[in-house]
Amino acid sequence: MFKKIKHLLYFPIASYFRFFAAIRLRMWNPKVVVITGSSGKTTLLHLVESQLGDLAKYSHEANSSFGIPFDILGIRRTKLTLDEWPKIFLIPLINVFKAPPTENIYVVEADCDRPNEGKFLSHLLKPDITLWINVARTHSMNFQKLVGDGKFKTVEEAIASEFGNFARSTKSLVIVNGDSKPILDQIDQITCNIKTITMKKNLKKYTVTLSGTKFQTNMGDFDFPYLLPKEIFTSVLMSLNLVNQLGFSRDAKFSKFRLPPGRNSFFKGIKDTTLVDSSYNANLDSMEAIINMFNQIESKTKWVVLGDMLEQGKFEKEEHEKLASLIAKGRYNKIVLMGPRVTKYTLPKLINLMPKEVKIEHFMGPKEVLNYLTNSILGDEVILFKGARFLEGVIENLLANKADADKLSRREKVWEIRRNKWGL
C-alpha cells in the first residue's frame, strides 16, 4: 500500500519542487547540457567535468524528478531519511530568490526510471545540448505496461521514447550513440542538429590491465589510470565533441578525470587481494560491458561476485538466463552468485555451461557472501563485484585500508542503516 501511494504522489509532489526550480533556472539562465541514457551517465558527467572544470555547474548525485529540482534549488540531503522532509518543503520558499550560480553552463545528468519522467524533466530543463549514450532494459517493469497498446512494440522502444523527450526538447544539438539501434530509431523525431558518434569507426584497439585502460584510436591514444569498459570510449568521444561545440580547448589526456564511486574502482583487499568495485548498479548491458572488461585482465586467480539485476519485470527470467551465457565466456577460478534471481535463473544454466573444475557458489544475501569470502580467500585473488543487494557493504568489510570505505558508493545514513540490517 505504501509503495502504491508513493507511486501516485511521485509527480504531484515533484511538481511542487519543479515549480520553484523553474523560476530559479529562468533567473539563472545557463546553457543547459543534459546527459541521459540507461547507464554510464555519471561517468560521462565526470568526463565532461574533467574538460570544463569550473566553467560549469554539475548535478552531482542528482538525476531524478526530485534530485534535479533539489540541485537547482540548492537542497542537499545528507541522510536520505523521512525526518528531513519538513525542512525540505520549506527550503524552496527561501532559496528560489537567492543569487543564482555564477557558472554559465549547467551540466545535468537526467534519468528516466518511470514513464513520463523524461517528459517531466525536459519541460523543466529545456536543454541546449543533449548527450544520449544508450538505451537498455533498466527499470523495465515500469515500462512493460506501455507495450502492446499499439504505441510501443517492445519495452526498449518505450524506454527509448522516454529518453527521447530530452532529445526532442533540445534547442541546438543532440549528440547520440550511433551504435545504438533504439536511439537511431528515434532520430527522425529530433528537430535540432544531430551529431552521431560511432565507436566502431574510431576505435582501433582497446587494452585494459590492472594498471589502467588504453584506447588506441584514429584521433590518437587515450590512457586512463582506471579500469574502463570498452563502451566508455563512446563517452570519451561525446565529451570531446561537446567541448568543441562549446568552443573551449580540450584536454586530450583527461588529466582531471576522476572515476565516480562504484564504477570499476579497484582497492587493495585483505590478504593482498584486488577488489574491483562495480557495485553501483546492474542491467544486462552493463553486466556485459563489465564482464567483457574483466575478461581482458590477466591474473592467475580471478573470482567474480555477481548479484541480481533488479526491476526487470517480466524479463527477469530471460535477462538472468542471458547473464549465465555472459559469465560462461570468461575464465574464472570461482563464481559467487548472490540473490534470489541469480540463484533461480542464472545458476541452473550456468552449471551446464561452465567446466566442472570451476567452483560456483550461491547465497541469498550479502552477509553470507561476506562470511564465505572471508573464509575462502587465500591471497592474491582479483575479485570483481557487480550487481544489486549491498555489495558495497561486502567490499567495505574486505578492504585492507578501512579509510578506503569513503571512496565506496552509498555513504548516506539511510544506506548505512540498511547495511546494518543485513548484518554488514
General description of the model:
This protein has 16 helices and 15 strands. The chain has 424 residues and is α/β, with parallel strands linked by helices. The strands form 3 sheets. The chain has a 6-stranded parallel sheet, sandwiched between helices. It has a 6-stranded mixed sheet with strand order 10-11-15-12-13-14, sandwiched between helices. The longest helix is centred in the N-terminal third of the chain and has 27 residues. It starts with a helix and ends with a helix.
- Structural class comes to alpha/beta
Query: For the report, how would you describe the main beta sheet?
Result: 6 strands, parallel
CATH topology of the largest domain: UDP-N-acetylmuramoyl-L-alanine:D-glutamate ligase
Strand order of the largest sheet: 2-3-1-4-5-6
User: Residue-averaged pLDDT, rounded?
Assistant: 92
The total tally of domains equals: 2
Helix content: 40-55%
Query: Helix count, per DSSP?
Result: 16
Strand content: 15-25%
Assembly level: single chain
Q: Unreliable runs, pLDDT <50, ≥5 residues?
A: none
CATH architecture descriptor text of the largest domain = 3-Layer(aba) Sandwich
- The span between the termini is 29 Å
Mind telling me the C-alpha Rg? 22 Å
CATH class of the largest domain reads: Alpha Beta
Outline, from the CA principal axes?
globular
The CATH superfamily of the largest domain is known as Mur-like, catalytic domain
- The counted number of beta strands is 15
